[in-house]
Amino acid sequence: MSLPLSSQAGPAQAVPTRIMIVDDSAVIRGMIGRWLAEAGGFEVVATASNGRMAVDAAGRAKPEIILLDIEMPEVDGLAALPMILKAHPASKVIVISTLTQRNAEISLKCLSLGAVDYLAKPESARVAGGATDFKRELIEKLRALGHARSRIARPPVAAPAPLPASAVAPAARPVSAKPQCLLIGSSTGGPRAVERVLLDMKPILPRIPVLIVQHMPAMFTAVFASHLEALLRIPAREAKDGEIVAPGQILVAPGGRHMGVTSSGGKAVIRLNDGPLENFCRPAVDVLFREAAAVFGASALATVLTGMGSDGTQGARHLVAEGATVIVQDEATSIVWGMPGSIAKAGLAHEVLPLEAIGPSLKSIFSGLTK
């Protein structure tokens, strides 16, 4: 294990976020350390080359965020994760793995064990010159998690002022039409949140179609869909271009492709495309929401769960303009209150609910039990 590498805090963050890097490659550890020093706002408090060393370092260095490689000698990332969280429960773990189906499956398993996010490490990331996208995404995730950490940890000096009336929509606005389709958008922390919502809705899932945009790379989305199918006992898969949106199935936008819907022969049909990134994302929640608004109108019901950025806000505008209902996760239960917070602050949310209340609320709406 190496001793701490440090970097100066950036102007927007007075106290640097404490990072631990766990990777068996000294090249990767050094490269990420240099990136964080250049970016500012981070302090690398420890590094480790295998899971066993990481467990020891976590309890001693008390990092706020841990970057955990999956493939390591002695003790790999999957085996080390529960021990790391036991040694230092307050840390947030981002799992890093190369793009293989096996690693995608392990990464999702790590999320179920307590990791908050994942990051795909392409093989080219082992060569510093080929890691531009990996670097950008890594810094964005660390900044988002660091901001959430500083917001939660900072002691209030006075009671916070309430948001203006225009910033958050009134709770429980009436639903204008019986919904016909559930749309879900999520990003950082999303897989576990999606699972929770759908498990709470399980009795009615055979009666409704569910369309999901979860920010994930290719290969991960297929594994995520298979995981949902095994968990819920409901057909779930990556969406295919041209297939009909039908009740009793869960369709996940494929990584690297936008998923929208169009109308054909009086039926809603999936439309996949390789268009430009929106909000730096493909798939983007905005694409699904925008096209669903045109097809389903007021009969769409959308929820936006934890995630960084603002993807989904513009699409929510289209949905609300058509009379559709949008429900978002609250700040307290979100890993990152970026996407749901953006919609709430724009006054587009019918309700802002804790994660555990979203599934029951959606279930009630679909069952026609709300006003």
UniProtKB/TrEMBL annotation:
<comment type="similarity">
    <text>Belongs to the CheB family.</text>
</comment>
<keyword id="KW-0808">Transferase</keyword>
<keyword id="KW-0597">Phosphoprotein</keyword>
<feature type="active site">
    <location>
        <position position="311"/>
    </location>
</feature>
<dbReference type="Pfam" id="PF00072">
    <property type="entry name" value="Response_reg"/>
</dbReference>
<keyword id="KW-0145">Chemotaxis</keyword>
<keyword id="KW-0963">Cytoplasm</keyword>
<dbReference type="InterPro" id="IPR008248">
    <property type="entry name" value="CheB-like"/>
</dbReference>
<feature type="active site">
    <location>
        <position position="187"/>
    </location>
</feature>
<dbReference type="GO" id="GO:0008984">
    <property type="term" value="F:protein-glutamate methylesterase activity"/>
</dbReference>
<dbReference type="InterPro" id="IPR001789">
    <property type="entry name" value="Sig_transdc_resp-reg_receiver"/>
</dbReference>
<feature type="domain" description="CheB-type methylesterase">
    <location>
        <begin position="174"/>
        <end position="369"/>
    </location>
</feature>
<keyword id="KW-0378">Hydrolase</keyword>
<dbReference type="Pfam" id="PF01339">
    <property type="entry name" value="CheB_methylest"/>
</dbReference>
<dbReference type="InterPro" id="IPR000673">
    <property type="entry name" value="Sig_transdc_resp-reg_Me-estase"/>
</dbReference>
<dbReference type="GO" id="GO:0008168">
    <property type="term" value="F:methyltransferase activity"/>
</dbReference>
<feature type="modified residue" description="4-aspartylphosphate">
    <location>
        <position position="69"/>
    </location>
</feature>
<protein>
    <recommendedName>
        <fullName>Protein-glutamate methylesterase/protein-glutamine glutaminase</fullName>
        <ecNumber>3.1.1.61</ecNumber>
        <ecNumber>3.5.1.44</ecNumber>
    </recommendedName>
</protein>
<dbReference type="GO" id="GO:0032259">
    <property type="term" value="P:methylation"/>
</dbReference>
<feature type="domain" description="Response regulatory">
    <location>
        <begin position="18"/>
        <end position="136"/>
    </location>
</feature>
<feature type="active site">
    <location>
        <position position="215"/>
    </location>
</feature>
<dbReference type="InterPro" id="IPR011006">
    <property type="entry name" value="CheY-like_superfamily"/>
</dbReference>
<dbReference type="InterPro" id="IPR035909">
    <property type="entry name" value="CheB_C"/>
</dbReference>
<comment type="function">
    <text>Involved in chemotaxis. Part of a chemotaxis signal transduction system that modulates chemotaxis in response to various stimuli. Catalyzes the demethylation of specific methylglutamate residues introduced into the chemoreceptors (methyl-accepting chemotaxis proteins or MCP) by CheR. Also mediates the irreversible deamidation of specific glutamine residues to glutamic acid.</text>
</comment>
<keyword id="KW-0489">Methyltransferase</keyword>
